[in-house]
């Protein structure tokens, strides 16, 4: 894992946007895995800015979101469909017919999960997946205890996740109890994964998944098994890492090597 520690959340967003832009310049029809939540918002804002400035085009890009609540209509103000359209898709030159999210209103949820997996497969797999992390170490809605080989499926949300997400709803009772989520195994098939975390409330989860053992109790720790993961943190989220000096040193060397090779 490449651990990049930056001073603040704005720098994290810019770095993540750089990774997206570099990929799309090399591969204009890239398949992107997208996430919702507070963390990637700054990245989307930065990508919107660059799109408007003519620096990058999403015209040929395909996207797959990680997850969607079950039972919320897609036009509900807190559905992930609404989140993505409001915060990203309507502001860029993307073809929305190539923007995919699981259908949380499907009558046959198991079939919908299979359909979503096949759609990703048919698109050739995900080139770059962006992830946030829950305070309990979840990625997407893969809560602690999720199989590290899991595929897209229906998951019950933990009370902690519902409490964390209740800030977007009028009341805790309004937060859905169930979601469709890509599995850990699905996520691990992306070619490159970039996980962002900002703020001290993520520091324990970050330490546990970067420096702790691989365990289904910390689903993000499965990323240790993936050959190309970039973890971009602000100083708050990095606050409990015990090997921070080493990560900074490795990053410095990595940057020197990349500037020599012209990357
Ligand atoms: P957040 O959520 O970005 O809103 O903190 C992250 C997550 O739960 O994966």
Helix content bin: 25-40%
Separation, N- and C-terminal Cα atoms: 19 Å
Number of helices: 8
Low-confidence stretches: none
User: How is the largest sheet built, in terms of strand order?
Assistant: 1-10-9-6-2-3-5
Mean of the pLDDT scores? 96
Estimate the global geometry from the Cα principal axes: globular
Bound molecules: 2-phosphoglycolic acid
Integer tally of domains: 1
Sheet with most strands: 7 strands, parallel
Structural class: alpha/beta
CATH class group: Alpha Beta
Plain-language structure description:
This protein is α/β, with parallel strands linked by helices. The protein has a single domain (2-261), classed as 3-Layer(aba) Sandwich (Rossmann fold), CATH 3.40.50.1360. Helix content is 34%, strand content 16%. The chain is built from eight helices and ten strands. It has helices spanning 9-26, 41-52, 80-87, 109-122, 159-165, 184-187, 203-211, 244-260, and strands at residues 2-6, 31-34, 62-65, 67-69, 99-100, 128-131, 153-156, 178-181, 192-197, 229-234. A seven-stranded parallel β-sheet has the order 1-10-9-6-2-3-5. A three-stranded antiparallel β-sheet has the order 4-8-7. α7 links the parallel β9 (192-197) and β10. The chain is globular. The model has no long low-confidence stretch (mean pLDDT 96).
Brief description of this entry?
By secondary structure, the protein is of the alpha/beta class.
Defining key terms:
globular, alpha/beta, 34% helix, binds 2-phosphoglycolic acid, seven-stranded parallel beta sheet, three-stranded antiparallel beta sheet, Rossmann fold, 10 strands, 263 residues, single chain
């Amino acid at each position: 894992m490449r651990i990049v520690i930056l001073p603040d959340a704005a720098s994290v967003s810019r770095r993540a946007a750089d990774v997206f832009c570099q990929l799309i310049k090399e591969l204009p029809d890239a398949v992107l895995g997208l996430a919702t939540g507070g963390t990637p918002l700054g990245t989307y804002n930065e990508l919107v800015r660059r799109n408007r400035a003519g620096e990058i085009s999403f015209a040929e890009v395909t996207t797959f979101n990680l997850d969607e609540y079950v039972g919320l209509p897609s036009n509900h103000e807190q559905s992930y469909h609404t989140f993505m359209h409001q915060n990203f898709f309507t502001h860029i030159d993307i073809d929305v017919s190539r923007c995919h999210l699981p259908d949380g209103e499907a009558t046959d949820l198991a079939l919908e999960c299979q359909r979503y997996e096949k759609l990703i497969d048919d698109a050739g797999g995900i080139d770059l997946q962006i992830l946030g992390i829950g305070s309990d170490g979840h990625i997407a809605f893969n809560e602690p205890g999720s199989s590290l080989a899991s595929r897209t499926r229906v998951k019950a949300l933990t009370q902690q996740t519902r409490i964390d997400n209740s800030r977007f709803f009028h009341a805790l009772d309004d937060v859905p109890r169930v979601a469709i989520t890509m599995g850990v195994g699905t996520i691990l098939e992306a070619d490159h994964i970039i996980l962002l975390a900002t703020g001290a409330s993520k520091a324990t989860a970050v330490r546990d998944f970067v420096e702790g053992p691989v365990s289904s109790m910390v689903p993000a720790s499965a990323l240790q098994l993936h050959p190309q993961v970039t973890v971009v943190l602000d100083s708050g989220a990095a606050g409990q890492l015990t090997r921070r000096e080493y990560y900074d040193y490795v990053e410095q060397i990595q940057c020197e090597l990349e500037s020599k090779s012209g990357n």
